[in-house]
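# nightly structure sweep
# worker-07 picked up a monomer target from the shared queue
# config: single-sequence mode, recycle default, output format = structure tokens
# input follows
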Amino acid sequence: MVSNDQVMDVLSTCYDPEIPVNIVDLGLIYDVKINPLSDQPGKSSVSVRMSLTAPGCPEAPMMQAQTQAKLASMEGVGSARVELVWDPPWTPDRMSDAARLELGMA
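# output follows
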């Protein structure tokens, strides 16, 4: 079964094209659920709830598709789903210290 750490490692390779910080450090990942697939032994379903820095982001469909494709390509993943959520709204308070430093906000 895929681990949460493995999922977060893959998610940290996804970027908002307008910001040079990965979506994990930006604080865009709200929830990760991993469950075994009964019809695919050894495989897991991965569901991610994520937000974006702004609801009107024109890159939303691309970012959602890119994130889902990267999760689906992981060894041990039988299905992947990425849901965009807007509640609670994203704020810069969700960013990691590394993201703040990278963006000159530290």
